[in-house]
Design brief:
Helix content is about 85%, strand content about 0%. It is mostly helical. The protein has one domain. The radius of gyration is 18 Å and the shape is elongated.
């Protein structure tokens, strides 16, 4: 369920929030994105993002224990894809871009061009987070559906 919740958050940013910010002047969009970045590191989002990651580690172990079954493969695939999409891309790509956005001064002369570059980069990485999280949620749902009864 956590992979699906995160997929929804990432999808909302890709489909609605970032396109909306791109319609605004940089002096308005920059502080809005800075506020989103601050809101993202609060307990509700972090609990779902990182709690799901911790559960995925357990799912990977269980997947190896069921290596010879179809559900085991789906468990492994879904959990690994979630960790790559939601955790690795976030830490390696999105957070450094967020830090660069947070360093922008909305009304400075260079902020407009820098915002355009940073927000475009951020959006492409977010598309990958969304697609990966959607795929992970689907794979984990398939693993549940294929699970032998009684387990």
């Amino acid at each position: 369920m956590g992979a699906g919740v995160n997929a929804g958050v990432f999808f909302a940013f890709s489909a609605v929030i970032m396109p909306g910010l791109h319609e605004l002047p940089a002096a308005v969009a920059i502080p809005a994105m800075q506020a989103f970045n601050r809101a993202a590191v609060t307990a509700p989002f972090m609990l779902v993002l990182l709690g799901t990651a911790m559960l995925c580690v357990v799912v990977i172990i269980r997947g190896f224990m069921r290596w010879s079954t179809a559900s085991g493969w789906w468990m492994l695939g879904g959990a690994v894809v979630y960790l790559l999409a939601a955790i690795v891309i976030t830490g390696v790509c999105s957070v450094p871009i967020n830090d660069a956005i947070d360093a922008l001064t909305p009304f400075s002369s260079g902020a407009v061009a820098r915002w355009g570059d940073l927000s475009t980069q951020w959006l492409w990485w977010n598309h990958l987070r969304a697609l990966g999280s959607i795929g992970a949620a689907a794979a984990l749902a398939i693993a549940i559906a294929l699970r032998p009864s009684g387990r």
